[in-house]
């Protein structure tokens, strides 16, 4: 697979088709795009964000866009902290694309961006996401009660973290990813608690 910046015109059809699946929106805060033109507009908005970088997840055998990854980085309490938001089309759940994407992003986050921590999270009822996050080596850090607009009630958001040192230990004996990442420019976010899923359109992960 390849991680690359969005091409709003070329990617609009695949992105629209991916978002037609209602299960893609169960645990996210985004609105559902209603046309290819709206999909293109949304991708243009993503590409224009300065403090959130967006990568499209491309399946190399087919050349199709099958997901996207958000990344945000900020200085908080003397540490450089990365946050994320991502989604994968249902047909590619549990096919390894999300794992490959993270394996490409970890060296970039901890190496090029010099992050001290990498944070992620999922709603308590999003069992697939929680299990997936834990399988990458993230450790549970805290729970916060937050309003879930889609479900119309207060729910528990589970937050996880992976430190640079913890990631280094996980890499011992592991082979480097064979995928490709094209660097997307990113600037430090302003304010506290700003991560990929808060800055953009919600978080889901499979």
Describe the fold and architecture.
With 206 residues, this protein is of the alpha+beta class. The chain has a single domain, classed as Gcn5-related N-acetyltransferase (GNAT) (Aminopeptidase, 3-Layer(aba) Sandwich). Strands 6-7-5-4-3-2-1-8 form an eight-stranded mixed sheet, with helices on both faces. It is globular.
Strand content: 25-35%
Compute the number of strand runs. 8
The helix count comes to 6
Query: What strand line-up does the widest sheet have?
Result: 6-7-5-4-3-2-1-8
How would the blueprint of this fold be written?
Layout: E1 2-4, H1 8-19, H2 36-48, E2 53-59, E3 64-76, E4 79-88, H3 97-112, E5 117-123, H4 127-135, E6 139-148, E7 153-163, H5 164-171, E8 180-181, H6 196-199
Parallel strand pairs: 1-8, 4-5
Antiparallel strand pairs: 1-2, 2-3, 3-4, 5-7, 6-7
Features of this protein?
206 residues; Aminopeptidase; eight-stranded mixed β-sheet; 30% helix; globular
Write a brief caption for the model:
With 206 residues, the chain is an alpha+beta fold. The protein contains 6 helices and 8 strands; from the N terminus they run βααβββαβαββαβα.
